[in-house]
Write a structure and sequence with these properties.
By secondary structure, the protein is mainly alpha-helical. The chain is built from 24 helices and two strands. The protein is elongated and about 100 Å long.
Length: 635
């Protein structure tokens, strides 16, 4: 026998022995999901098919009879369990009830009860790992579903013409009230036999199907429904139906449930629970990566950070900033392994390292409340760290306006930062009371405003540098900047400089206030007041120093400050977008200065390098022009 063939004969049984358990488990999960799908279909559709013993739709009834006959075989294919015999008995009774055309409500209740028993017996998860996002679902619906179901979900899409049966009208509240989010998720996963409703398991990952299920559920919410409330858990929103809530708790609670499942909110969890969520989601990410679902694995790793660890960063930063940084780096290293398609073994090693850092976070956060001194210095550093960049921008703008005799234009700057204060507190109040601002949205907001501010600061710095010398430029400056356009530009820059930091500052102080406890809270206030005094003192020094500088030196110094801040903001903006998962990671061997926005990442360094190159280009252009003008002046 050929040596290679002998090796194959020897290895084949070994490979089968290794892969058989995983294959069997996968087949078992698929059979359980299929059985749950059929039971939910019967529970939702049978009441409309048979009424008072009369068949209303013969085609639907025959299909339901067929599904009832398929169910026992599916359950028998599952691993033996103590509940299997009871399930088979219940399925036999369900089949008899359908054959006897029994009351629709009773049959629906029986099917739902069997589905719950099946899910419990075989540990079938009926809720998502991470909170679904209806906005992502809306985009997926437009791409995948609107061609059949129509833009509004009424079953009138261009491809629906001639379809038998016609696509479901997803705005039909009575119909959708019979389905749970898990039912919708399962339908998207498995499709519907005998119809044009295809299975999306191969096209959409698990998170995308949950997002789409939530959006589909939102289409049936009547106008004027109550605002979403957080009184229901994610498990309840996924597994229950509005019809079941109405039967047990009344129409008012059903309306609240219907609105809540159309826009699930992030659950309120303790720091320990959030870190545990991070661990569980990372484990799910590694599992998906091993199974070849690399895109889903990366998506889960981002969600683990944004919906878990990112929400405890403030509390951790107040106690141990170095530990926060180490954990963040470990999480990013794991995400990088997925991004670069490294072997699963290497990804697992990095995940273990991240797990060790997360455990240290639990130990740090699990200690007693902050001491009075730590409460004071944490409060002081929060406002100094987050407010320094804003105060530098504001002081530089005000110094510029005062130096050029445009004191009346300072009102626009004060209006800009004043509106930013109002907008920041309103954003926090809306996020706390009405909406659910996720970690991803916070990072996107911070990243977007930082990059926009970088562009504004670069423009202003270059503009100031180009007008730093001759008296003729002073006349131009006064004429041009008195207009509404110049004042609006300064007001906008003041608004962005303050607003981009304020929302995060409020969240940090909210966390610190709870951590400090009653004994430490006065020291939190004292620390914030001390930081405010220091920041105002810095602004006063800048304004006083600017008044004593010659105009040319002032313009040069102010231009350098603006350009330096543009570089810093560019680094912060890219880092925030990377944390949100909108930009990939590209670590390089380089030092890190977080307060300057310098991180050892190719994208962040490239952004800062681009800003520096533009600064050099514009400075070089001005230098060349001044050299060209010098002979003419001397002549």
């Amino acid at each position: 026998m050929n040596p290679l063939r002998r090796l194959a004969v020897f290895l084949l049984p070994l490979l089968l022995a290794c892969t058989a358990p995983a294959m069997a488990q996968e087949a078992s999960s698929a059979a359980a999901a299929k059985a749950l799908h059929l039971l939910s279909y019967l529970a939702a559709d049978y009441p409309a098919t048979v009424s008072a013993g009369e068949i209303r739709d013969a085609g639907e009834y025959r299909e339901q009879q067929e599904f009832a006959r398929l169910l026992p075989a599916l359950v028998q294919s599952l691993p033996a369990s103590t509940a299997q015999a009871s399930l088979l008995t219940g399925l036999a009774q369900l089949g008899q009830a359908i054959e006897q055309r029994q009351d629709g409500a009773a049959v629906s209740l029986q099917a739902r009860s069997l589905a719950q028993q099946l899910a419990k017996a075989y540990a079938v998860s009926q809720s998502p790992v991470i909170t679904p996002d209806a906005r992502r679902g809306a985009q997926l619906f437009a791409q995948q579903c609107s061609v059949c179901h129509g833009v509004g979900g009424q079953g009138d899409g261009p491809a629906s013409i001639g379809m038998q049966p016609a696509p479901t009208n997803l705005t039909n509240t009575a119909r959708l009230d019979q389905l749970s989010l898990y039912d919708l998720f399962n339908t998207l996963t498995l499709g519907v036999d005998g119809t044009d409703m295809a299975a999306f398991a191969d096209q959409l990952d698990e998170r995308q199907r949950w997002d789409l299920a939530v959006y589909v559920a939102s289409l049936s919410v009547p106008a004027g429904s109550p605002a979403p409330a957080s009184t229901f858990s994610l498990q309840q929103l996924s597994g229950l139906t509005p019809a079941a809530i109405a039967a047990s708790e009344g129409a008012g609670q059903a309306a609240a449930f219907r609105a809540a499942r159309a826009q699930p909110q992030l659950p309120q969890r303790s720091s320990t629970q959030l870190i545990e969520f991070t661990r569980e989601t990372l484990q799910a990410s590694l599992k998906a990566y091993r199974e070849g679902a690399s895109e889903q694995a990366y998506d889960l790793s981002v969600a683990a950070y944004l919906e878990g660890f990112e929400l405890v960063e403030g509390a951790l930063n107040n106690v141990d900033p170095a530990q926060r940084k180490r954990t963040e780096q470990a999480l990013m290293a794991y995400r990088q392994a997925l991004q670069e398609q490294l072997p699963a073994s290497e990804a697992e090693v990095r995940l273990q390292a991240a797990g060790e850092q997360l455990q240290r976070c639990v130990e740090v956060l699990g200690s007693d409340g902050l001491s009075q001194s730590l409460s004071f210095f944490s409060s002081l550093l929060i406002l100094l760290r987050e407010g320094l960049e804003a105060i530098l921008v504001l002081a530089a703008i005000l110094a510029f306006l005062n130096k050029t005799g445009q004191q009346h234009a300072t009102r626009s700057v004060h209006l800009g930062w004043g509106l930013a204060l109002v907008a920041g507190f309103v954003t926090w109040a809306v996020a706390a009371l009405l909406l659910d601002i996720s970690g991803a949205q916070r990072e996107l907001l911070e990243g977007g405003t930082a990059l926009f501010a970088s562009v504004m600061l670069l423009w202003l710095g270059v503009w100031m540098h180009g007008r730093r010398q001759a008296d003729a430029w002073q006349a131009y400056l006064r004429q041009s900047m008195l207009g509404s356009g110049g004042r609006f530009g300064f007001a906008l820059l003041a608004f962005i400089a303050v607003y981009r930091e304020l929302f995060e500052v409020i969240l940090f102080y909210e966390t610190l206030w709870l951590q400090a406890g009653a004994a430490g809270q006065p020291w939190v206030i004292a620390g914030a007041l001390a930081a405010l005094v220091l920041l105002l003192g810095l602004a006063w020094v800048i304004l006083r120093g600017a008044a004593r500088l010659p105009l040319g030196a002032f313009f040069s110094a102010n231009a350098l400050l603006m350009c330096a801040l543009a570089v810093v903001f560019a680094g912060h903006g890219v880092a925030a977008l990377q944390e949100a998962g909108r930009l990939p990671l590209a670590p390089v061997p380089f030092f890190e200065l977080d307060w300057l926005g310098v991180h050892p990442d190719a994208y962040g360094l490239a952004a800062q390098g681009l800003v520096l190159a533009l600064i050099a280009l514009f400075y070089g252009r001005d230098w060349w022009r001044s050299r060209q003008l010098r002979p003419a002046v001397e002549g």
